Amino acid sequence: MKIILTHEVKGLGTAGEVVTVKDGYGRNFLIPRGYAVAWTKGAQKQIDQIAESNRKRATHDLEVAREVRDALESNVLVIKKTAGENGRLFGGVSTADVAAAASELSGKAIDRRAVNLASTIKSVGEYAGSVKLHDEITAQVKIAVQSAK
């Protein structure tokens, strides 16, 4: 039986792939649970169109990610936090703070889970980190933490 996977199935394939499975496995497990749909010529044309649009979108996203990477790497992210007289922060700088500063600088929404800090930031100073913008593109960012007055 030929089916089109709608979700990733371990050991079988990823979404959008056309695979051949035993009739019972497809009819009794994959299709009722929504992991796959039966293969037809019309469904195959639809899958081809979706794959083409995904390729175009992926190319566009890659170009945007490169532009954002260049913008982030050429500038320093400035984060202002309240600190004591010795330069120790009240709290710390989180990945959400870095993501907000990067989003403001680049103009593109950046998720806090894409930010990776080399070390925890607990005091005023210069730090380094990385922001994963795409599967293939990671920006190395410089972070300047300043005391807010």
TrEMBL record:
It comes from the Bacteria. Residues 13-40 form the Ribosomal protein L9 domain. SUPFAM superfamilies: L9 N-domain-like (SSF55658), Ribosomal protein L9 C-domain (SSF55653). One of its GO terms (cellular component) is ribosome. Keywords: Ribonucleoprotein, Ribosomal protein, RNA-binding, rRNA-binding. Belongs to the bacterial ribosomal protein bL9 family. This is Large ribosomal subunit protein bL9. It comes from Arcanobacterium hippocoleae. The gene is rplI.
